[in-house]
Amino acid sequence: MTSMMSRRKALALGGGVLAGAVAGTGTASAATDWFRLPVITANVGRDNLAARDAAFDAVRNADGEHRPLVCFQEISEGDTGEEAMIDHYFGPLYTKAFLRHETSFRIPICVGRPWVVVSSRTERAHGGIPGVTPPRWFNEVVVRHQDHPAVEFAVLNTHYIANAYNGDQRTDLRDEWWLMRDIHRARSRAHHEAGRLVIWGADTNRPDFGTASDLSAEQKAFGTGIDRLHWLPGDGSVQITLNTTRTIDMNVDSHNARLAIFHVRAV
Fold first, then answer.
1. Under a CB-based contact definition with an 8 Å cutoff, are residues 206 and 177 in contact?
2. Dist. CA 267–CA 255, nearest whole Å
3. pLDDT per residue as tens digits for the range 160-204
4. CA dist 153 → 161, 199, 264 (Å)
């Protein structure tokens, strides 16, 4: 009988590719290798603008030589120079989706090789409110492995309005918060119902945020705080495991970036 590699032993291999099979889920011949997938959500604020350059450096290099997939929030929101910083640290091997979009530029998604963007979509959640918030948008991309197109998943990113469910707790802002939540739910479920794995990052501006999809299958890499990374499995054709999580000090404001190291494969 061919021996099966344990999940723990397989994960211990680390690196860019997690080789072999996982007990109970098939054999190596029936699946791709496991691919390391570091994902980060990072809100880059405005309290200490001089710290931003180092913050982008820390985010880019948070997983050593591996290129993280990053959901940014609050980019070029009342400040300047951040597009150039992202271009510098996330170079030509990255697709910087929405970074210079006419309207949804505040929440770009940086996708590095071996992952490639095959489609993108943005949707307006609500307009701006003077002195309170800029217009809010919802961004998403579908990505595939450049050499193994069966390994495909959706990445969603957004930034909810502040002070509706945190801070000032203003009930007059909750309609706007729920407009975003309705889009988040609809888009998570649309990809899920198409059989696609969904990974999302966001500043939810709600410490007790539940799930985006209202589905029990949705899981949380970070289950507390306002900065979240969640995932929702699809039809099982792409599998995902969570290896570890950690925070990344950015020293710009009260936000620290959050990193989840996943492994994914097609079966």
1. yes
2. 37
3. 999 999 999 999 999 999 999 999 999 999 999 999 999 999 999
4. 26, 7, 10
Helix spans in the chain (H): 7-12, 52-60, 82-89, 174-193
pTM of the model: 0.89
What is the tens place of the pLDDT at every residue in 224-247?
A: 999 999 999 999 999 999 999 999
- For residues 246 and 62, what is the distance between their CA atoms, to the nearest angstrom? 9
